[in-house]
Design brief:
Strand content of chain A: over 45%
Helix content of chain A: under 10%
Order of helices and strands of chain A: EEEEEEEEEEE
Structural class of chain A: mainly beta
Structural class of chain B: mainly beta
Helix content of chain B: under 10%
Oligomer: heterodimer
Number of strands of chain B: 11
Radius of gyration of chain A: 13 Å
Distance between the termini of chain B: 41 Å
Largest sheet of chain B: 6 strands, mixed
Largest sheet of chain A: 7 strands, mixed
Order of helices and strands of chain B: EEEEEEEEEEE
Shape of chain A: globular
Chain lengths: ~110, ~110
């Protein structure tokens, strides 16, 4: 069964550094998302992406964040200058027929 | 603003028991509702998707109901097994600026004791 994949599974970075989280959505899906989950808290929406552009973003998704689909298969989330509070699990998702399929997540630890 | 609440926050039951997890949401204008399972440190596995026009969905020992007018959904797990131990998340799909997003509850942590 097709699945969403994410790399790396765990990323440790120092505050102020740039990180890129990578996702490969399911191939025939058209809608892509990033969500995050801070430890012990709810899963929160960050951004949705359709037709090679952002369709919606939350107030969390400020100028430090960007997304890109560089080659028709990968979908990336970049955080330009990480802060301690960016430490969280980041989930990529793709959608088909109203159902979201989530990847296994990348645990980002900012020290 | 849509808010999703799940009760109870945690539940511990003996193996074989039937159980119900509850989810409520504040705004009935939803596209659909999805139940997920999350194992510790892992991703989200979709269990059931209920479209806004539907009342329930079933998959194996799982049955989810939706009452949109009252803003409630329940997940019924029959004959629980230790392998069912996980956190169960409820999420509603809402429209925002022309696209959809999921709004999640905090989850119910289920422990099934052998």
């Amino acid at each position: 069964e097709p699945e969403v994949t994410q790399t790396p599974s765990h990323q440790v970075t120092q505050m102020g550094q740039e990180v890129i989280l990578r996702c490969v959505p399911i191939s025939n899906h058209l809608y892509f998302y990033w969500y995050r989950q801070i430890l012990g808290q709810k899963v929160e929406f960050l951004v949705s992406f359709y037709n090679n552009e952002i369709s919606e973003k939350s107030e969390i998704f400020d100028d430090q964040f960007s997304v890109e689909r560089p080659d028709g298969s990968n979908f990336t989330l970049k955080i330009r200058s990480t802060k301690l509070e960016d430490s969280a699990m980041y989930f990529c998702a793709s959608q088909f027929a109203g159902q979201r399929y989530f990847g296994p997540g990348t645990r980002l630890t900012v020290t | 603003k849509q808010e999703v609440t799940q009760i109870p926050a945690a539940l511990s039951v003996p193996e074989g028991e039937n159980l119900v997890l509850n989810c409520s949401f504040t705004d009935s204008a939803i596209y659909n509702l999805q139940w997920f399972r999350q194992d510790p440190g892992k991703g989200l596995t979709s269990l059931l998707l209920i479209q806004s026009s539907q009342r329930e969905q079933t998959s194996g020992r799982l049955n989810a109901s939706l009452d949109k007018s009252s803003g409630r959904s329940t997940l019924y797990i029959a004959a629980s097994q230790p392998g069912d131990s996980a956190t169960y998340l409820c999420a509603v799909s809402v429209s925002q600026g022309g696209s959809e997003k999921l709004v999640f509850g905090k989850g119910t942590k289920l422990t099934v004791n052998p």
